Amino acid sequence: MPIVINKLTASIEGICTVEDAEPLLEWLITHPGGTVNLKDCENLHTSVLQVLLIGKAQMASSPVDLELSCWTDAVMPTIKIKKRNRKIPVKLEEAQGK
Predict the structure, then answer these.
(1) Using 50, 70 and 90 to split pLDDT, how confident is the model at 7?
(2) Is there a smaller number of Cβ atoms within 10 Å at the N or the C end of the chain?
(3) Is 73 helix (H, G, I), strand (E, B) or coil?
(4) What values do phi and psi take at 85, rounded to 5?
């Protein structure tokens, strides 16, 4: 199965076919706004893409494959790439306005 699912993330790897759409949909129903990693995805069936759009999944990373990445990024405007919280170190005196 090209979709590896755990509690927080669904990783789509290799060639994702129509048969993979239903398990992904079930996971997104139980994990609304879940994170999906497309980094290792080589081919994505349109039914899986529709599930991602309907499920409003958060995309952790685009496919490494440039052609697929251009295609998925162009048709998935509602899926945003999650950004990590980046904290900038601040000296205590600066934070207190001294």
Answers:
(1) confident
(2) C
(3) helix
(4) -70, 120
- In this structure, is the dihedral angle defined by the CA atoms of residues 48, 52, 54 and 55, taken in order, positive or negative? positive
Residue whose pair of structure tokens reads 């979709």 in the numeric block: 3
Q: What is the pTM of this model?
A: 0.71
What is the gyration radius of the CA atoms in the chain, in angstroms? 17
CATH code for the domain of 44:
3.30.750
Distance (Å, whole) CA 54 – CA 78: 10
Mean pLDDT of 5-16: 89
**For 13-25, b where at least 16 C-beta lie within 10 A, e where not — what string?**
eeebeeebbeebb
Domain range enclosing 86:
3-95
What's the number of domains the chain is made of? 1
* Dist. CA 38–CA 9, nearest whole Å: 11
